[in-house]
Amino acid sequence: MALVMGIDLGTSSTKTVLMDEAGNLVAAANAGYPLLTPQAGWVEQNPNDWWKAVCDTIRQVVDKIPSVQDIKGISLSGQMNGAVFVDSVGVPLRPAILWLDGRSQRECDIANERAGDLLRERALHVLNPINMLAKVLWIREHETDCYTEAHQVLIPKDWIRLKLTGEFASDVSDASVTGALDLYTRDWSGEILDALEVRRNLFPKVVESPTIVGAITKDVAEETGLAAGTPVCAGGGDMACMAVGGGVIKPGVVNVGIGTAGHVLTFAEDISDAMFNQLWPMCHAVPGRYFWLGCSYTGGGSLTWFRDQFGESFEDLTTQAESVPVGSEGLFFMPWFQGSATPHPDAHARAGWIGLSLHHTKAHMIRALMEGVVFDLRHSLECFKRLKLPIDEIRIGEGGAKSALWRGIQADVFGSDVRVMETRDASALGATIIAGVGVGVFESFESACERAIVLGETVKRDTDRVAQYEKCYQRYSRLYPSLKEWFRRV
């Protein structure tokens, strides 16, 4: 029996899964690690914590199968836009700076002034603190020794693959949102790097996602229980892997997920700057293809924050929210704890409730929070419509699909029936599919997705609620434009 392994290096935890050639999940394991916030606006992690989690989860899953020789290939998914500065043998020179980190706004402002036209023409992007290139510019300015000593800078999952194989590489999907990749050539942009005086050799070679870039080393085999020589494919950024795991490999399928971040993505044969600085165009894990990504940085993280502050379970919170009518009686929530993303990327924006009165209760605040996250994600669907992209089926997953209330809010706010994905971790599933295609266990992405993706119930939209939410969404859409200058002054 042929098996493939997917390793998903998330922001809060790593999940490792095994899938057989029929598309069935055979084993899975999960291990977490902390975020480090040494200063306000700084978000880091210790790469060694990732490695421990990866090794722990691999050992757990291989213990559940008769022979590791059945594992024919491995691929990775991972949190995008982190920066791991390493020496010539791959040892990190400092903690990794994560995608959530906001320290580099000044460097972004300077870069956009110096190379804004190139960034738009080649990267199709305005440089923001979330981008890996912004972190490189910050390190060059503030930690000169680290910049000088760095052999290369790696995206988080690329560092894990380096640990597994000893090979330096990146894949086009993860690289496509760094701000340094030419999305048309699917390689690093020498023009952008030269304009910003960033040395080109700081970045590893770039390959397509299913490419085999190395094999499990003998030392790693001893540490994890894997077989030495097992092929390892490049893999992809978590959003690209989620596109694969959600079946977004053809026009018309839209995937919506509410995890730590919220996302909306759809397939594209090609890309342009038509939604410049509103959506993110990305290289797909399917070679030569693309997809559009809309994002809410702290979508599901907003409800996690609320839970952590008030010490209640998600189930208790959503039960309270169910008692509140549609629209939360005029209360709105803006889920911008770490800035806003689609369609108004702004690192200065912040979260909060607006419209509070003495009539409102904690239950109103919870429901308004859940509604606000979905309103924020609807912006992406509106962008897709302006691009004239087909929206034939909306599939929802991750934590936001666990709650019946949140499922219903999504159907009603989107004004469309939605299909629930049975697989909660589409990124890990996508990584296994990429591995299977890369090593030939699956003949194509299409056949792999047909076998592996399991769809559950269809949540029907309610006509009356759709009409009510349409009015609420129109009011919500005016909040950011009204508050933009206030955010900047604060």
Question: Mind explaining what this structure looks like?
Answer:
The radius of gyration is 22 Å and the shape is globular. 53% of the residues are buried. With 490 residues, the chain is α+β, with helices and mostly antiparallel strands. It has 2 domains: 3-234, 2-Layer Sandwich (Nucleotidyltransferase, domain 5); 247-490, Nucleotidyltransferase, domain 5, CATH 3.30.420.40. It is built from 17 helices and 24 strands. Helix content is 39%, strand content 21%.
Number of domains: 2
Major β-sheet annotation: 7 strands, mixed
In angstroms, what separates the terminal alpha carbons?
Answer: 60 Å
Question: What value does the average pLDDT take?
Answer: 96
The total beta strand count reads: 24
Determine the number of helices (DSSP H or I, runs of at least 4 residues). 17
Return the CATH architecture of the largest domain. Answer: 2-Layer Sandwich
Sequence of strands across the biggest β-sheet: 18-19-17-16-22-23-24
Structural class: alpha+beta
Fourth-tier CATH superfamily name of the largest domain? ATPase, nucleotide binding domain
What is the highest CATH level, the class of the largest domain?
Alpha Beta
DSSP strand content: 15-25%
Proportion of residues in helical segments: 25-40%
Overall 3D form: globular
Rounded to the nearest angstrom, the radius of gyration is 22 Å
- Enumerate the spans where pLDDT stays under 50 for 5 or more consecutive residues: none
CATH fold field value of the largest domain: Nucleotidyltransferase, domain 5
